[in-house]
Write a structure and sequence with these properties.
Strand content: 5-15%
Number of helices: 10
Order of helices and strands: HHHEHEHHEHEHHEH
Oligomer: single chain
Largest sheet: 5 strands, parallel
Helix content: 55-70%
Distance between the termini: 64 Å
Structural class: alpha/beta
Length: 203
């Protein structure tokens, strides 16, 4: 069927890009790539990539995002956003400075980032940490959770340096419970490629 061919094409292309750009990494992480490719081939998914800085989370997320965007870029109804958690929260804080109906609309937009058809949220946990930011992201995840319970499906991929316990500590156990219900949580255990390539001169 057309749907199954599209799914297989997605797997082949995403895997091919990873193999071409990061051959050594791809060879060591073939099973991980196959798992992510399988998820990305679906009409909807929610993926949370966790791991230390430099382990490949953002590189994988961007390849998945770019491929799916390319498949839908000619569809004017297809909504998408790629944004860092810091920028996302910054937009919310900026929205708070508006007034009247403009303020209401800006806040609503800032709280609906996870409702787009395709979402890449990068570096969750790297935003300015405060009770206010934790409350904001709790509302964002709550909105997505309620929408998914009502049957809405989209494609979301999130990266974070936080582990499961860290997410619960920063955003609360309620957010972690909701992530656990709908998200495929994938932990990357690779060492930082940046540190491997570090050129250090001693005098």
């Amino acid at each position: 069927s057309q749907k199954s061919r599209t799914a297989k094409d997605a797997q082949r292309i995403i895997g091919g890009i990873l193999a071409m750009k990061y051959p050594d990494w791809y060879q060591k992480n073939a099973k991980l790539c196959a798992y992510i490719e399988e998820l990305a081939a679906n009409d909807s998914f929610a993926i949370l990539l966790t791991g230390k800085p430099g382990c490949g989370k953002t590189a994988i997320a961007e390849i998945v995002f770019d491929h799916i965007y390319a498949m839908h870029k000619n569809d004017s109804r297809f909504s998408y956003v790629a944004i860092s958690a810091d920028k996302m929260y910054g937009n919310y804080m900026a929205a708070m400075n508006h007034s009247g109906s403009e303020r209401t609309a800006a806040i609503e937009k800032a709280e609906r980032y996870l409702m787009y058809d395709l979402v890449l949220l990068d570096d969750l946990g790297c935003e300015i940490s405060s009770d206010a930011s934790a409350s904001y992201f709790a509302r964002v995840f709550s909105m997505q959770y309620e929408a998914w319970k009502d049957g809405k499906r989209n494609r979301v991929i999130i990266t974070t340096n936080l582990n499961i316990e860290g997410i619960a500590s920063v955003y609360g156990s309620r957010v972690m419970d909701r992530i656990a219900e709908f998200y495929h949580v994938i932990t990357l255990t690779n060492d930082s490629w940046r540190m491997k390539n570090l050129k250090q001169v001693r005098f």
